[in-house]
Every structure is written in structure tokens, then in C-alpha cells.
Amino acid sequence: MTDDASARDLRASDADRERVAEILRDALAEGRLDMEEFEERLDATYRARTYGDLAPITRDLPGHGTASVPAVSLAKDPERGGDWGSRIVRGDEPASTWAVAVMSGFQRKGHWTVPRRFNCFAFWGGGEIDLREAYFADREIVINAVAIMGGVDVVVPPGVEVVVRGVGVMGGFDHREEGVPGEPGAPRVVVTGLAFWGGVGVQRKLPRSAKQRLREERRRQKLERGEERRREVEGSRHDLHDPLGLNLHDRRDRHRGGSGGHGRDSDR
After folding, report:
1. What Rg do the C-alpha atoms of the chain give, in angstroms?
2. Quick check: 201 and 171 in contact, CB under 8 A?
3. Distance between CA 55 and CA 75 in Å, rounded?
4. pLDDT tens sequence across 171-203
5. N or C: which end of the chain has fewer CB within 10 A?
């Protein structure tokens, strides 16, 4: 942020506070802040009213990966691309195309690129395929899961359309998430395969970043309610001490004026 005094006095917006909160979340994930420091700075962020209040919160943290980037910018930069188009990465090399668990387990989660077709096999074991933070090699991807006396769980984020086409033999596929309309531009996930004495489940969960934002929003609302209650208590105390709406200075002036007049009458 610029050192110009007038700029530091400008009122910060909710979007400005959210940009600072995003830098703090990145710093927590990278190990630059511990949880206690993160919570303290986050509370200060939501209490901030001006750019001058926000600037010290991230002064010792790199912004967006480089220390030379200012912690708070007066420029209204566009929000980070959270649209589905940014997560469809045609042509990128998939991070993984298959997984096997034989009396063991496998897991695919975090930032990984899901291929057009992902094959997995679980025998006396289990696997988890988490798509909440994944990128997609195409608009439609197929997860072919074979579970024999084992299980595979597929986790999708809100907004993704799910189609289940698997076959269960003394086992089954979870169809509960079918029929939920997808968001415009969101990928379509087709779950197919075979479950023999086993199961393939499909769950819809919020991404971890969204959960973190919900917790932060609740904390911000709690702080705002606490500040509002504090103002109400202060107002109540003022009314109790001054029920007629006269401050102490006014009452003293009236008393002195009355006493003086009485004394002058007595002298007469």
C-alpha cells in the first residue's frame, strides 16, 4: 500500500478485508503463521476500518508469492477466478490415471488433474477420490471403479453434476447425488464400474477453503455482535447515570447559576 497519508485514511471495503484474509490463509497453509497468530490477525482484519489499519497485518508476509507485492493495494483487482472454466484444463497432463488397493488403500485429493477416464480397483481395501479441489481434463470425466469386498468413495464439490451407471452384485453404488442440477460450465462426473460384495459411494461436500471461509464469516459476525452489544451497554450506562439527558457539566452550571441568584437576592 502507498505510504501517502490520505490513502491510508481511506475506508476499506469488505473486498479489501477479504483479500487480506486470503493472504493470511495462504500464510497459514505455508507454515508462515501458526493457528494462534492466524486467528489474531484475522480478527484484526475484520475489525479494520481503513487501509492504514489493514497494512500492518500482512506487512511481514509475502503477497501472492512475492515479498515485493504490497500487502494491500488501492487498485480494485478482479477477484481470483473461482469459475468452473478455470478448472477445465484441456491438454494438461493428468496427475494420475489409475489407482489400485489390494488389502490396502489409496487416496487422490488436493490439487490434482483428473483425467477423462480414471480407473481404480479395490480388493479387500478402500480408496478415496476427492474432486473438491481438483482440475478436470475435460468437461465430462468418467470414474470407473471396481470394488470387490472393498469400497471406493468419490467426493464431489457442490455444483458438479453426477451420473451413476455402475452395477452392484451383492453390493451397490450410491445414487443419492444423482439428479442434482449442475452449475453452468461445471464438469459432469460419470461414476461407473462394478461392486461385488462391496460398495462405491458418492458424497457431496464443501471444499476446505469454503469451510474455512464459513468459519471466518461466523467469527466476523460474532465480533460484530459483540461490538454492537458493547455499544448498547455503554448507551444503557449513560442513560442510567444521566436519566434526564443532562450531562454533569450542564447540571453544575445550572446549580451554580441557581446558587448565585439566591445569594444575590439574600444580599438585597
Report:
1. 30
2. no
3. 14
4. 999 999 998 888 988 999 999 999 999 999 999
5. C
